[in-house]
Task: inverse folding
């Protein structure tokens, strides 16, 4: 295990050190709830199994998103399995309005766990990811107990071909204060969203064009312009939700028979 305050004084710029540590094959990196500055991209360059980053606060500067996401894989997209964020806070309010960037690109990650993670990034997406080759999409990941404030909280997109979308991922007990809370593209499949998620003051809570998407009972949509928007390709199930001050609760733009809805 690596303990960050033993390696670098709190308050320092951790960009170089973190780039090195996050390319360990397997390790635990503990920040001791210290605060550090990220001033440049953090790049996953190698294949990783069972790597955890926990208990740390990052102040992300405007230069960190130069030419792409702050946390990003290289263009070779190494396979990353069992990566975990736990009790990680990221203040990315300094990221520029244009071009729109992403704080964390989870492309080509599988079995990832993002738990008790707080991201505030009003000018960018919090999480965004897609598969970069056939069968290498982000699979079997979870977001649980997070707070996400950004243009999009969780973005699952594709490259316009089958098997390039993120599949079989789960979001639970997460609070969204975003332009769009969760956005899923056409080739995103088998996501489960629900069990205590809250969408507050969003333009749209959930915008999905994916297939076999399950939006479980017990989510809260409050003061959103739109609650759930389902695109023309979409299908799935929508359970019982709580709506308060929502302009349109459910919008089905495709074949309504492709959805099972508990009103």
Result:
């Amino acid at each position: 295990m690596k303990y960050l305050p033993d390696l670098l004084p709190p308050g320092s710029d951790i960009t170089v050190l973190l780039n090195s540590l996050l390319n360990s094959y397997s390790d635990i990196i503990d920040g001791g709830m210290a605060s550090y500055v990220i001033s440049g991209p953090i790049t996953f360059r190698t294949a990783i199994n069972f790597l955890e980053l926990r208990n740390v606060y990052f102040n992300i500067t405007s230069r960190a998103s130069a030419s792409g996401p702050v946390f990003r894989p290289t263009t070779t997209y190494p396979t990353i399995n069992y990566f975990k964020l736990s009790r990680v806070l990221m203040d990315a309010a300094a990221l520029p309005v244009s071009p729109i960037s992403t704080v964390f690109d989870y492309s080509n990650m599988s079995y990832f766990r993002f738990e008790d993670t707080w991201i505030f990034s009003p000018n960018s997406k919090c999480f965004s990811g897609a598969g970069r080759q056939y069968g290498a999409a982000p699979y079997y990941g979870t977001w649980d107990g997070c707070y996400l404030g950004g243009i999009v909280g969780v973005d699952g997109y594709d490259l316009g071909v089958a098997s390039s979308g993120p599949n079989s991922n789960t979001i639970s007990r997460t609070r969204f204060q975003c332009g769009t809370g969760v956005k899923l593209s056409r080739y995103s499949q088998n996501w489960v969203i629900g069990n205590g998620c809250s969408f507050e003051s969003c333009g749209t809570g959930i915008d999905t064009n994916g297939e076999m998407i399950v939006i479980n009972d017990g989510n809260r949509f409050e003061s959103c312009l739109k609650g759930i928007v389902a695109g023309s390709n979409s299908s799935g199930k929508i359970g019982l939700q709580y709506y308060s001050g929502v302009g349109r609760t459910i919008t089905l733009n495709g074949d309504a028979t492709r959805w099972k809805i508990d009103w």
In short: Residues 2-256 form a domain with the Pectate Lyase C-like fold (CATH 2.160.20.10). DSSP finds two helices and 27 strands in the chain. The first strand starts at residue 2 and ends at 3.
